[in-house]
Design brief:
Order of helices and strands: EHEEHEHEHEHEHHHEEEEEEEHHE
Strand content: 15-25%
Shape: globular
CATH architecture of the largest domain: 2-Layer Sandwich
CATH class of the largest domain: Alpha Beta
Structural class: alpha/beta
Distance between the termini: 31 Å
CATH topology of the largest domain: Dihydrodipicolinate Reductase, domain 2
Largest sheet: 9 strands, mixed
Strand order of the largest sheet: 14-13-12-11-7-10-9-8-15
Oligomer: single chain
Number of strands: 15
Number of helices: 10
Radius of gyration: 20 Å
Length: about 350
């Protein structure tokens, strides 16, 4: 990466879309700023709201910090292009509906902005590849907001997998179960736009599996737009990798996010609903691992700021990764349709 991208100056941020995810990004930028990261949200674009201080109408699956967003120095714009064109913005978070992501990201990159774009990038893999080409040629930083790659416990899990501290992985099983989002309910009910549970929820575990073990040789996926499971087949890797996702649980059942990774000499055990979210079981001993209290949203924002400011040159989450994952998701969709294993 060229040095002209790096800066020690304050990185001025614009957020497009101020629904649940836009609020989440804005709060994460402000928390990072409070902790000394050189960033400041200066503008938000959303044509659907009258004020940045109007009450939020929904919450996400995962509880976030209780701190309020300080809107006193943020300008509300009605038009995304107006935000993209502003010369006082260096970085744009795109937190709009999925079917607007690619066009907005390309417009922002063409305006010489860095871009953090929410997942899924797009439902059609060709659109993800299109943005990947533009991003790679832009000279700007553009990454997908795959928050699980930055969840502290999951960072630790990947570290343990790659270091082989407990030997090789034999099995990895993931569960991500809840009810369909209540924010933007009409959008999420339209699978042609949201991609259903496959592209919006199951994508997290698919991405993490690719991040840890590489692209699978094949996938077998069964289910529908509300509830599905995938067996990931690897020619040279774990003998059993399985992920289960659901949007058809009743809201009173809450949200489950769990995974169990069986290594040769230990079992890595994560459950977001426990006080000790990450536990290592070895022989007759179970050891909780302290992973702090930041979320994956905090992690991805701080990682982006570090990339832009030059604190790190190691880009472990690129649009190339998003393109690979889009191809895996397409294979999963095909597997559901034909009821067979699909090779990649």
């Amino acid at each position: 990466m060229s040095n002209d991208l790096h800066t020690k100056k304050e990185i001025r941020v614009g957020v497009i879309g101020f629904g649940f995810m836009g609020r989440t990004h804005t709060k994460a930028y402000q928390c990072a700023q409070h902790d000394g990261f050189p960033c400041k949200v200066v503008a938000i674009a959303d044509s659907g709201i009258q004020s940045l201080d109007q009450p939020k109408d929904s919450v996400g699956n995962i509880a976030s910090a209780d701190s309020e967003i300080d809107t006193s120095q943020i300008t509300l714009l009605r038009d995304a292009q107006e935000l993209i064109d502003r010369p006082d913005i260096d970085l744009i978070s795109i937190c709009t509906h999925t079917d607007t992501h690619v066009d907005l990201a390309i417009q922002a990159l063409n305006a010489a902005k860095h871009v953090l774009v929410e997942k899924p990038i797009a439902i059609n893999p060709a659109d993800v590849h299109k943005l990947t080409v533009v991003a790679n040629e832009s000279g700007r930083i553009c990454i997908p907001a795959m928050c699980m790659r930055f969840w502290p416990a999951w960072l630790k899990m990947r570290e343990l997998i790659h270091s082989k501290q407990f030997g090789t992985v034999r099995s990895a099983v993931f569960h991500r179960l809840g009810s369909r989002p209540t924010w933007a309910a009409e959008f999420y009910a339209d699978e042609s736009r949201s991609g259903g549970v496959l592209h919006d929820l199951h994508i997290h575990d698919t991405d993490f599996i690719v991040h840890c073990f590489g692209v699978p040789q094949a996938v077998t996926t069964v289910g529908d737009g509300l509830h599905l499971s995938t067996h990931f087949h690897f020619a040279d890797g774990p003998v059993h990798v399985f992920a289960h996702a659901a949007w058809d649980h009743q809201p009173a059942a809450g949200f489950e996010m769990r995974c169990t990774i069986a290594c040769q000499h230990a079992t890595i055990d994560f459950d977001i609903n426990r006080d000790n979210q990450l536990i290592i079981h070895k022989a007759d001993t179970s050891t909780p691992i302290d992973v702090g209290n930041l979320s994956g949203y905090d992690g991805e924002i701080r990682y982006m700021i570090d990339l832009i400011s030059g604190k790190t040159d190691t880009n472990t989450t690129s649009m190339n990764d998003a393109a690979m994952v889009a191809d895996v998701l397409e294979a999963q969709s095909q597997s559901i349709s034909i009821g067979l294993k699909v090779s990649l």
